Amino acid sequence: MKKLIGQGISLILLTTAITAFADTDCEPAEGKDLRGCDYSEKNIEDANFRGANISGVSFKKASLKNANFEEANCHKTNFSHADLEGSSFEAASCSNANFNKAYLRRVNFEEANLRKAKFRGSDIRKANFIGANLNGANQEQAKRDKGAIFEKETKKEKAGSSK
């Protein structure tokens, strides 16, 4: 009798665990609430997270080349060591996000809220930060070059550069 009761409880616990996992849909999609998902070390290139709530989600060491994070809520999201080459965070809200040691070449952060974001040791060469809020952001030891854009060139500056 004890053996049957123990097996019944195990079956109930297993069924509950499977049901709970099935209800947690972490498939990337536009405008979706993905809080609680973990994409660490996943390969999800060209994914569409536009307008999604990914606040607090981990993308640590993930491959996210050319992903769309435009207008997403990525407050306190962990992108450390991730490859985000060619991705867009245009108008995204990424305050306190962790981009430490991330590969951010050609990433578009135009008009993004990057207040207090961490970029320590990240590669930001050729990234676009035009109009982004970088107040309190930590860019210590970030790899830059003249291709990283922080301000729009005026017509006068462009005319002067052709001489």
Short description:
With 163 residues, this protein is mostly helical. It has helices at residues 2-23, 155-161. It has a single domain, classed as E3 ubiquitin-protein ligase SopA (Pectate Lyase C-like), CATH 2.160.20.
CATH architecture descriptor name: 3 Solenoid
What overall geometry do the principal axes of the alpha carbons give? globular
Q: What is the level 1 CATH name? A: Mainly Beta
- Note poorly predicted spans: 9-23, 154-163
In CATH terms, the superfamily is E3 ubiquitin-protein ligase SopA
Please report the number of helical segments. Answer: 2
The multimeric state of the shown protein is single chain
Description:
The protein is mainly α. It has one domain (29-152): E3 ubiquitin-protein ligase SopA (Pectate Lyase C-like, 3 Solenoid). The chain contains 2 helices and no strands. The radius of gyration is 21 Å and the shape is globular. The termini are far apart. Residues 9-23 and 154-163 have low confidence and may be disordered.
Topology record:
Blueprint: H1 2-23, H2 155-161
Task: Please name the defining characteristics of this protein.
disordered C terminus; globular; mainly alpha; Pectate Lyase C-like; about 160 residues; 2 helices; about 0% strand
